[in-house]
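4.2 Preliminary Data

To establish feasibility before requesting continued support, the project team ran the inverse folding procedure on a target of 221 residues. The structure was first converted into the token representation described in Section 3, and no sequence information of any kind was made available to the design step. The complete token record follows.
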């Protein structure tokens, strides 16, 4: 049965890639449609010692590492990210649990960061390693995108929500926004971006925390 479901997921993935434009944008909304409170989900207050230290000093010591199959690995502070060109978009977050919420996100297009580190020809996926142990489990949260979604113009590492610094409950200091994907792909508390050729060396080998527990890797909407 699991093999059959995996085949269905692959067919859905390939069909959507054939039908939809690689650059087609997710629907954007106007300011009047922004939810008064953007509903947090999953981990909302990480208790890891290193994360609490970052919170206590306003993320002054936090750094984002980008490495793996790249020619120029780099490490960036939060101010350095904020100095880069940014994009702001008002989009709808669709949770696999059945609820939705509209928010305004500002952040650095992931494509710009990838251009800086120059992916190797063998890089096929971008993996987002996070600071939180979801629901107190043993594994740190992680997620991944293929290179098409990573380079999509609405794929951001977002640091502002509704014009304010991203709250802890919503993934501070940065989280992924990949607007053509379901909510569990929008990794919060991102601290490392790794380019890989496959998922074989990553936790359960399915490309994401929830994917290792039975969710589809392809969560396109």
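Position-by-position output of the design step:
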């Amino acid at each position: 049965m699991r093999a059959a479901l995996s085949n269905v997921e692959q067919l859905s993935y390939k069909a959507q890639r054939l039908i939809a434009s690689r650059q087609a944008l997710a629907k954007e909304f106007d300011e009047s449609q922004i939810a008064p409170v953007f509903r947090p989900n999953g981990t909302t207050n990480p208790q890891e010692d290193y994360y609490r230290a970052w919170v206590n000093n306003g993320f002054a010591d936090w750094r984002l590492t980008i490495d793996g199959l790249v020619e120029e690995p780099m490490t960036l502070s939060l101010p350095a990210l904020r100095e880069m060109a940014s994009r702001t978009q008002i989009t709808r977050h669709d949770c696999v649990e059945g609820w939705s919420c509209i928010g305004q996100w500002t952040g650095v297009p992931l494509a710009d960061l990838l251009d800086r580190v120059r992916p190797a020809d063998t890089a096929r996926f971008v993996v987002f390693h996070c600071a939180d142990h979801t629901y107190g489990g043993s594994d740190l949260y992680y997620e991944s995108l293929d290179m098409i979604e990573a380079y999509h113009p609405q794929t951001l590492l977002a640091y502002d929500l509704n014009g304010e610094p991203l709250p802890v409950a919503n993934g501070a200091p940065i989280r992924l926004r990949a607007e053509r994907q379901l909510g569990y792909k929008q990794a919060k508390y991102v601290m490392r971006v790794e380019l890989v050729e496959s998922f074989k060396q990553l936790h359960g080998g399915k490309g994401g925390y929830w994917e290792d527990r039975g969710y589809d890797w392809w969560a396109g909407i």
